Amino acid sequence: MTSWLRNWLLKVLNVRHAAAQYSTARTRIPGSPQDAHLDLAACDRMTLVNLSRHWEINSPLASKLGFIFEQYTVGEDGLPVSPATSSEDFNKEALSFWQETEPLLDIGSALGFRHLQGLTAHRWFFDGEFYWLKTRGETGFPRLQAIETHRIQTPDQFRKDPSVVDGVRLDLRTGRPLAYFVAEGADSKQFREIPATSLIPFVDQSRVRLHHSAPFLAPALNDLQDLHELQHYEMLAAKDASEITNVVYNQIGEAPPSGINTTRYGEQVTLNTGATATENKEDFYRNKVGGRTVYLQIGDKLEQHQSNRPGVAMQGFWDFIESNICIATGISRQLVRPWSMQGTVVRADLDSQAAFFRTRSAVLISGTRNAYEYVIGQAIRMGRLKNPPKDWMKANIRPPRNVSVDIGRNSSAAIAELKAGGRTFQDWYGEMGMDWREKLSQRAAEAAFIRKLAEDNDVDASLISDIAPEPQPEPAHAPEPMPEPEDPKPQPVPQNLSVNVEQPRQQQQPIELNVTLQMPEKSGKKKVQFNRDEAGQVTNWEIVEEQP
């Protein structure tokens, strides 16, 4: 028994993970693995949202991170939608209806759908989630209503219902959301149960059966508070240091009484009347010499107070905390507070950032596609759009322009790939968040206008722009095709040849040289073509034609 126990202990100790063993050198972290909704309870979620909103309006760093997230996930023009069905006529009608509905799509605001997209990205960053409710306006047209995360709560009468978790009714077998409880009114005491199919959630789900998500700032909330307090205390120290200008050291360690000032710092002077009086030396020298005069008793010392706070070490510590905050949100500190860095490192960093923002933008694109399908589907049911194709839901939604450090360099490379066929116009304009059909149609319209303008003013179109070059005149007679020469087999170079150079052609790749060889044993001539490489060495030769 003892031998078995010893072998078992040795086996366990040999395969153990050091992090799983208790150590007095580190603080013990309590807890055990559990379901996701227990790790993010309702009270914890509300606390995190409250702290995140606090630093949103009180921390310049947090505010900047939120605007950067919105800028590179939605962009200044939002996420444009372009119908891409198999019917071009339906695409035009659907696009026209979408553009007509887009400014009025947000039922709670008059700023339009693109502003709602930016608001969604902003609130998603600071609140962790955001919702759109599919609804209708007074005229019956489809509309969207924005819902913030703090309104998703569990009503009191459902707190003991196991199928309702933090305001979400779940399918107990699969864990799929069936409905959401949304608080209504100013007092948030009235709740409405909304089917999950009527809501478009923007949630960063990181766990199974986790239907809420924490703010992006959640891992950095303590660091934000530490940074704020450090800056506050350093600012108090700097203000205190700026208030103290001079420090006087004397033998008794205290300032002289006011009654002694006149005698100690006075000087006996004779007036014009012959009488004597005591004049303050500071006033005397100020009148005679000018400027500021200071007197010290023998043994006293005066020093000007200097403050070196915050020091270099403290500033470096601030930078470290700021880097941690940026890392927690996934946003590079180079975008928040740029500094000089090696170019290759910056490009690698920003390429990683571009992938990060595309991933987050994909969630917003998915929600936008859901809203587009809802609007177009309602338009088809209302008879506003007729003869829809089977793929009427298909549309292109492009993310905004990628973050880049060298737009000119990337643009030159993209142009070369476009000319070589490595990418299409859809890829080219899609990276900039544009629709290739609209851009090419606009380019064609501009070229036609430039050509007409040139004709009206009797000038060359190339003087206005190079996108509308003058058409080349067609030849009167099409040239007859040259007969293809036969492809003779290469022959070995004969010996004892006399070479007469007729006329070398313009050197190309490979370099070609036409010569005439006269065979000693024959009276006839043969025209031979030598092919040479770049180094000038003859690689092969062939007979082009025979001459009599």
Looking at this protein, list some descriptive labels.
15 helices; four-stranded antiparallel beta sheet; 548 residues; 40% helix; 3 domains; alpha+beta; extended
Brief summary:
With 548 residues, this protein is an alpha+beta fold.
Which structural class fits the helix and strand makeup? alpha+beta
Strand proportion:
15-25%
Low-confidence stretches: 501-508
Helix content: 25-40%
Describe this structure in words.
The protein is α+β, with helices and mostly antiparallel strands and 548 residues long. It folds into three domains: 36-211 and 333-401, no CATH class; 223-314, no CATH class; 498-547, no CATH class. It contains 15 helices and 17 strands. It has helices at residues 2-14, 36-39, 42-58, 60-73, 88-101, 113-127, 221-243, 258-264, 281-288, 312-329, 333-336, 343-381, 407-420, 425-430, 436-457, and strands at 81-83, 129-136, 142-148, 164-165, 168-170, 177-184, 190-195, 199-203, 246-249, 266-270, 276-280, 301-304, 395-397, 498-501, 511-518, 525-532, 538-547. The strands form six sheets. A four-stranded antiparallel beta sheet has the order 4-5-6-7, with no helix packed on it. A four-stranded antiparallel beta sheet has the order 14-15-16-17, with no helix packed on it. A hairpin with a 5-residue loop joins strand 16 and strand 17. Helix 3 (42-58) crosses helix 4 (60-73), helix 4 packs across helix 6 and helix 5 (88-101) crosses helix 12 (343-381). The protein is extended, with a radius of gyration of 41 Å.
